[in-house]
Amino acid sequence: MENKEEHLKQIDVLAIAKEMKKHKKQYLIALPVTFVLSCLLILCVPRYYTSTAKLAPEISSFSSSSLGDIASSFGFDIGGNSANGDAIFPELYPELIESNDFMVGMFDVKVKSKDGSINTTYYDYLANHHKYPWWMTGIQTVRKWFAEPDTTVVKSKKANPFLLTKQQDEIVKLMMDNIKCNIDKKNYVISISVEDQDPLICATLADTVQAKLQDFITDYRTKKAKKDLEYYKKLSSDAKSKYERIRQQYGSYSDANQDVVLESYRLKANDMENEMQLLYNTYTSLQAQVQQAQAKLLMQTPAFTTLQSASVPLKPAGPKRMLFVLGMTVLVFLIISIYSTRKIIFGEME
């Protein structure tokens, strides 16, 4: 029984091979044509590079009693500290980077290509120097023919995130596709990846996005502390001016009435001395508040450890040209094989 089944399988394989051999001409025509067309097609797609930077919050102490406060000072909320809740959690950093405000802030970043032929802003680079496949260029040209004219009124050369022009909106969408931010929810490692057609511009953008994200988080975390510090500094400066003014008045009054023994003069001198002492106490108290505000500002300033710095990639990340050509060739081979042996394959299935 087993010999009969093996014999049937051999017959089936031989039948399939014979059927495929009958369509040898189709293979000889289709496979070389597919290979050539795949090569021509994939060669039109510009190569791109990827550069990645990784950051982590710098936490030196893991005491259970102060872990919530420490994590909060670095922009993280791990619970147990509702009084100092943070509105921007690490999970929101990708949305932050994809916002119009953040992307528009990248327009004026200076970029330079590796060969030195391009030296301009990132916006101008994407608008005038970014390469597209020929079919994408054709589609964009046709879309421009039928597109309605842009009626957005531009009052300033500086881009307005609230009111973007059509071209600016397209550039922002392209930037969103090129710049990605991922957060590891287990250890809150921040990964910033930038994709671009030039390796040097790719690394430059990754480093710039990293710096801008750090600056934004730092400004957000320290905004209130900075306002408090400025407020106490102003109060301290005003108190110091008042103290110095009354001190000069008291000194001048004492010098002018040093030999006077009238009680009214002595009482006025005592009143001025008491007022001077009160102003001095106020000034010293405000100085202590200034020092506390400086300490609070330092405590709430987030620190980051760079786990992986952005570097210029040596090899392109894509497209995988050999794999694409091989895949298309194998796909056509399978299609022809299934088509040529369909009667045998589907006949046996029935």
Automatic annotation (TrEMBL):
The keyword Membrane applies. The keyword Transmembrane applies. The chain crosses the membrane at residues 27-49, 322-341. Keywords: Coiled coil, Membrane, Transmembrane, Transmembrane helix. InterPro entries: Bact_polysacc_biosynth/exp. Residues 262-296 form a coiled coil. PANTHER family: FERRIC ENTEROBACTIN TRANSPORT PROTEIN FEPE (PTHR32309:SF13), TYROSINE-PROTEIN KINASE (PTHR32309). This is Chain-length determining protein. It comes from Segatella sinensis.
